[in-house]
Structures are given as structure tokens and as C-alpha cells.
Write a sequence for this structure.
């Protein structure tokens, strides 16, 4: 895995996130996004949420990669079965975060989580990055049946870029 490319992608997403927050008017943030039930501010928080969940995903890979592969396969099936409750929590969490945090706190949170991901990625070995587990493919279009730690590090930028296209801001940054 090209760690520098992942670092660069995360920095690009961070800079874009800041530009979007700075350039959007209050009316822009309240406007409905394209293809979601969120307004733009809530969708921006959801885009940030993709980075925030990585810590949990990294921990899951570390745990399940040490167990027999059938265990992670079964866990992924169980999570897929719970897709409807996940979707409800995902929607409500993004609605709440986007409604209550505000620009400054979202920007600060973005900086903190991406800085932490940079530090953690720098500590990963090639052996660590090759560890993997099965994932619930119904939870996100970027989740594949089996993902390595390297794949998980790439996920938040893929998620960010996908949702960036759904924003209905005057200037998307």
C-alpha cells in the first residue's frame, strides 16, 4: 500500500471539507442535498462520520483477523441482517450531528480525527495492513465482502468523495 497516497487523499479531503464549511452560506447549509434525506450541513457531518468510524473499523479488523475467517464471515452476516436498524442510526446520528455541531466544531473534529488517522497509519506495518475481515456489504456501497486494513484506510475518502457530489452548495470547493 502506498501510505503517502492515502495521507495525500486524507489531506485533500480535509482541505476540501474546510473549504466547503468556509464558503457555504447559512442558506446553503440548510438546503436539501441531492439524493439524501439530509440538508447540506447534515450531509457534511455524515461525510465526516466516515472518518470518525474508522477507529472502530480498525479495531474490528485487528480483532477478527486473529480469529478463524468463519467468525468474521458470520459477524458480517449478522450485521447485514441488522441493516435497517443501522440505517436508522446512521440517518439519526448524521441528522443530529449536522444539526447541533456547527461549522467550527465540525472543522475541529475533522482536523483531530484526520491527524489521528495520519499518526496511526504511520505506525502500521505491511503485516498490519494485510490483515482483514469480512464486512457487511449492505451497510455501505464501498464495503466489500472482505477488506484489509489497507482497504479500511482508503474507505473514508471514497465515502467523502461520493457524498461530496450530493451536496447542493453554490460552490462545491
Amino acid at each position: 500500500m502506498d501510505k503517502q497516497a492515502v495521507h495525500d487523499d486524507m489531506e485533500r479531503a480535509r482541505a476540501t471539507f474546510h473549504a466547503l464549511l468556509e464558503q457555504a452560506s447559512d442558506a446553503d447549509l440548510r438546503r436539501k442535498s441531492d439524493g439524501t434525506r439530509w440538508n447540506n450541513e447534515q450531509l457534511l457531518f455524515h461525510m465526516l462520520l466516515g472518518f470518525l468510524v474508522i477507529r472502530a473499523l480498525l479495531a474490528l479488523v485487528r480483532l477478527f483477523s486473529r480469529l478463524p475467517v468463519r467468525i468474521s464471515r458470520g459477524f458480517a452476516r449478522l450485521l447485514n441482517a441488522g441493516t435497517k436498524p443501522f440505517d436508522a442510526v446512521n440517518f439519526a446520528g448524521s441528522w443530529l450531528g449536522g444539526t447541533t455541531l456547527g461549522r467550527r466544531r465540525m472543522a475541529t473534529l475533522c482536523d483531530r480525527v484526520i491527524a489521528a488517522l495520519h499518526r496511526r497509519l504511520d505506525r502500521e506495518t505491511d503485516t498490519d495492513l494485510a490483515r482483514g475481515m469480512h464486512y457487511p456489504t449492505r451497510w455501505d456501497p464501498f464495503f466489500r465482502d472482505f477488506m484489509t486494513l489497507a482497504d479500511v484506510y482508503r474507505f473514508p475518502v471514497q465515502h467523502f468523495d461520493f457524498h461530496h457530489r450530493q451536496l447542493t452548495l453554490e460552490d462545491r470547493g
In short: The first strand starts at residue 132 and ends at 134. The beta strands are 132-134, 146-148. The chain is about 70% helix and 5% strand. The CA atoms of residues 15 and 140 lie 24 Å apart.
